Predict the structure.
Amino acid sequence: MLICEDDEDIAALLRMMLEQAGMEADIAVNAMQARKMLAGRAYAAMTLDLGLPDQSGISLIRELRSVASTANLPIIVVSANAENGRRELNGEAFSVIDWIGKPIDRNRLVIAMKQAVARAPGHRPRVLHVEDDQDIFQVVNAIVGQLADVDHASCLSQARQLLKNTRYDLAILDLGLPDGSGMELLPELNSASPPVPVMVFSADEMGNDGSRQVSASLVKSRTDNMQLLATIRRLVGIES
């Protein structure tokens, strides 16, 4: 990953966040240095501050999109002016994976970077669905099976065994399992490298404390197939 950020402390924080998620990162402190580094090495994605000392981040995005080698480079804007930048580019054909404000939301940053990696040709996401109702699993598998490989665990012990041997792009958790709650898997999922995004898909609604620990929470009786598919696509980094 390439981090383009002129604030040394923020650049160091971004690098630490990405390295903790299992990614390598280089730092460019201005637009000129970023251009040189992009010309010398292929990066999976780039984070970009909009307030650079030598060039507007928006104009740099436009410039990178006009060059064949960086026309499709995934860009994640990380800036105090992220929302203003989003509005400025509104309607233009410049794909930006996410617009993240400061202070930085680490989970959102990691998900955005996973979306960038998921754009690589040939990548097929792998999903772990922890669900004791076989009928529910079959429905979910039928909905998402064309875009991702789905592994099934009917209890916590099966899920933990799968997590030991496989890296997942998303975990879908039921709360009411025969041997406990799906939330008990959060330590394993959060300690993975990179951490695994979590979607709760359960009969019961989560409280505010629980919902803050996961990327998405859906209630089975209130969720139609299109909403379920759209949420999963977003979390594994596949655009609609």
